Amino acid sequence: MKPVLSIDVFFDFICPWCLIGQRHLERALAQLRAEQPRLQVNLRWRGVQLLPHMPADGLPFEAFYRERLGSEQAVRHRQAQVRVAASAAGAHIDFSRISRMPNTADAHRLLERAVALGNPTQVEALLDQLFAAYFHQGKDLGNRATLLGIAEGCGLMPAQVADCLRGDGTPFTSASPAPASGVPCFSFNQRRVVSGAQPVEVLLEVMRESLAEAAA
User: Fold this and answer.
1) Is the residue at 35 inside a domain?
2) For residues 47 and 91, what is the distance between their CA atoms, to the nearest angstrom?
3) Structure pTM?
């Protein structure tokens, strides 16, 4: 019988640890597939809007984090920590290019629509491009034109997604509520849950254990 592993990833686009967690998961899955070539993976990305009451047009990025962390020094220290972790995961984050802390509701609705359309390649491309637009290019993920441009670049037609880009700040509510442990959060076969941007080795071991449990 072909081994099957279901993975649900709970995340938000503004969370750098979610980008890092994505890269760790990619590497862990590559190793697992090398070990088990017949493995079938059902990977689902579950959006979680961390700041549902964010204004529709967002807030100034630097001011937001100064208020959140208490000082400019604290912000720089936290960003340095994130950059080191991101670099180790093979991800690039350029905080200097980010000017807005966006409302991510429409970005999540866009990805949810892509999932509903049923093309995994487009979903993967869209996820990558949304992360890159924010963390690499500093684009505003709350901007309708930005989101439409990204969607088109991933092969989605405006008519397929325009209605889910509301632009009014309406909070995003997922059909699958996130575990209380925050994001990123990984659920394997709806039994084992791992929170945080855990190392590749941790994710790999949990996936092996989940497959062993399913086979028992």
Assistant:
1) yes
2) 20
3) 0.94
